């Protein structure tokens, strides 16, 4: 197949990719210089909508309504916008090999893409119960939510299992949001998580008690201090029951699992320095390879607030780190030992647009 070459390539088509593209346009990227390569079939969109308004029974959000950068109050970047700016959207394309020394990416279809500057914005993949060999975890109607295709499948199941029973496995952001969304759809909802209260990394016990009480008042059953250890299915292969470690068994027509994610860094193993599970960057989000930047979920960067290296999985970080990785540095900016502020990034990253 023919080889394609670009000055800049953004690998990944999520939130970070869209915000980086907008910043490239602001900085004056020329037509044909920039490409976004994504395995998804649609232009970058605000991923948080998938666990919120996308699941509403009425007035549900649908594309093009939540393409980036509408989530931060900016202009909605429709597919036509990229065309107008001369930015090539290479969709439904999975990259299976990255050769960083050769500045080359190879797709599953055998296409080759060359770049001068690469921005890794691959994000995370969900942790699946099948990864741990949980019995029956491959049954039908057990869902994970990361991409729009996942959300579409969940929506269809909600319609098919109207007034049925749903079990949410996990008590973090995704678990709480999905619990609320499924209850709005008139499902009988139970939430299961091993921690003593929901969102323990963020909430105190008192704050968690408020939310748990609110959910309980809405009819959501909360089961704490145990985990799902198995699933049974019916003759059609659809999930029927959730078996808990404490011996309880919950009926289920739908199960949604939200137990965390892993950064998608496998393509770059051994080619770039890593730290605490992510790709190590400096305060400009530049990696140990001078032509490669990493933003969003995959980046482990110096965080000024805590004076340490951290990896942050949050949409606001995805937006801001992506913008940071594209900005032309201010005149006279020192590029020594800088650190990055959690809320507003103090410096800009030298990806020259000349």
Question: Explain this structure to me?
Answer:
The two termini are 30 Å apart. The protein has 2 domains: 3-124 and 262-328, FAD/NAD(P)-binding domain (3-Layer(bba) Sandwich); 128-259, 3-Layer(bba) Sandwich (FAD/NAD(P)-binding domain), CATH 3.50.50.60. Strands 1, 2, 3, 4, 5, 6 and 19 form a 7-stranded mixed sheet that branches. Strands 8-15-9-10-11 form a 5-stranded parallel sheet, covered by helices on one side. Strands 17-18-20-21 form a 4-stranded mixed sheet, with no helix packed on it. It has 6 helices and 21 strands. The chain has helices at 15-27, 79-85, 148-160, 173-184, 205-217, 315-324, and strands at 3-11, 34-37, 88-90, 95-99, 104-107, 112-120, 124-126, 142-144, 165-169, 188-193, 221-224, 228-233, 239-244, 249-251, 254-257, 261-263, 274-275, 278-280, 292-294, 299-303, 308-311. The protein is an alpha/beta fold and 354 residues long. One of its GO terms (cellular component) is cytoplasm. Residues 320-340 are annotated as: Disordered. Residues 6-322 form the FAD/NAD(P)-binding domain.
In short:
With 354 residues, the protein is of the alpha/beta class. 19% of the residues lie in helices and 27% in strands. The longest helix is centred in the N-terminal third of the chain and has 13 residues, at 15-27.
